[in-house]
Design brief:
mainly alpha, 7 helices, single chain, about 60% helix, about 140 residues
């Protein structure tokens, strides 16, 4: 699928300033796109490859064909996550991830975000050694 998009041409225009991108090897790019289309998020795929997200976003900005391939992989990844089951559905309404990552303003997503914050605050109070925090 993406092998046609990533042929022997140069991947991106050389940068004039700053550090060069470390995302230059076609096999590394192919692996990232494969991981993303299998259901991994960009953060998960780049962490697995030992990179930060910045080189991927720089390459997406510099190369229109890579941007199209990445968008296609992201769509396939969303479908894979939906098919994986309800525990992994980041794209479903009423989840904390939908509220925090995708900034969904609907009532179920806001409620899920509020419940998650309340759980984190309660856990922090339990872990705290301060008596005033547990009394509040």
């Amino acid at each position: 699928m993406t092998a046609l998009l990533l042929d022997a041409r140069p991947l991106a225009e050389p940068r004039r300033r700053g550090r060069p991108s470390v995302l230059t090897r076609p096999e590394q790019i192919e692996q990232l796109l494969t991981d993303i289309s299998a259901g991994a998020t960009i953060a998960e795929a780049t962490a697995f490859a030992g990179l930060s997200r910045t080189p991927l976003y720089c390459l997406r900005r510099a190369d229109a064909r890579f941007a199209a391939a990445l968008e296609q992989a992201l769509r396939a990844g969303r479908q894979a996550r939906r098919a994986a089951g309800p525990g992994l559905q980041v794209d479903e309404h009423g989840t904390e991830a939908r509220y925090t990552k995708l900034r969904c303003p609907c009532a179920p997503c806001r409620a899920a975000g509020s419940r998650a914050r309340a759980r984190r605050r309660a856990a922090a109070r339990e872990m705290s050694n301060c008596p005033a925090a547990t009394a509040a």
